């Protein structure tokens, strides 16, 4: 049984595709997708020896070695161009996901959908997508074990997000006023309140510049609520 997080990621993989899961760890996601008949075949990529072996063992235990290829390597380096239609990258920071996409750009022609699930720094991922001809078609956000996970689904296309709050919190999450996004906005507002109070209490040399920044961000956050 998949966790709710992986299940929600899986639900964004269309039927009949060849997929790759990068940073697959136990290979739970490709195993599930192939078993369900959603994916015709899958590639599980892992850069680290331990998880790579775990994925390999798991796939063989499930008798799926013919349909899931477990490969060791960094990011998209395990793929040949044109090999898959969908790539999932989940359970890592937004910076890392961005790095993997950037370093593996030459493997993306032929890929029609990305399902990305950054833990933090999702603005990095949105900015990269926008700059490289991808359009966000849906988003989701959830907590698991008290951690916040986002899911960003992108396909080929133009998008033009200029609003910093949309880059940070996600255009779909904001439009839906997702309760977890509202929580996050409140959390960020709390941080600003405390930072402003600290500046008032102990004035420093660059305190004024910092205050101006904080006030600008406070105004932006106020608008999304
Ligand atoms: N994707 C699974 C999930 O969401 O449950 C596993 C997430 S696990 C926290 C992150 C995995 O990504 C680790 O097994 C790690 O070894 C792998 N990883 C990190 N950077 C990677 C990279 N550049 N290429 C391939 N795998 C990577």
> Which kinds of small molecule does this entry bind, naming each only once?
S-adenosylmethionine
CATH architecture of the largest domain: 3-Layer(aba) Sandwich
CATH superfamily of the largest domain: Vaccinia Virus protein VP39
Succession of helices and strands: HEHEHEEHEHEEHHHH
* Global geometry: elongated
Number of strands: 7
Structure notes:
The protein is an alpha/beta fold. It has two domains: 158 residues, Rossmann fold (3-Layer(aba) Sandwich); 44 residues, no CATH class. The chain is 44% helix and 24% strand. It has nine helices and seven strands, in the order αβαβαββαβαββαααα. A seven-stranded mixed β-sheet has the order 3-2-1-4-5-7-6, sandwiched between helices. Strand 6 and strand 7 form a beta hairpin. The longest helix has 23 residues. It is elongated. The two termini are 37 Å apart. 35% of the residues are buried. Bound molecules: S-adenosylmethionine. S-adenosylmethionine binds next to strand 2, strand 4 and helix 4.
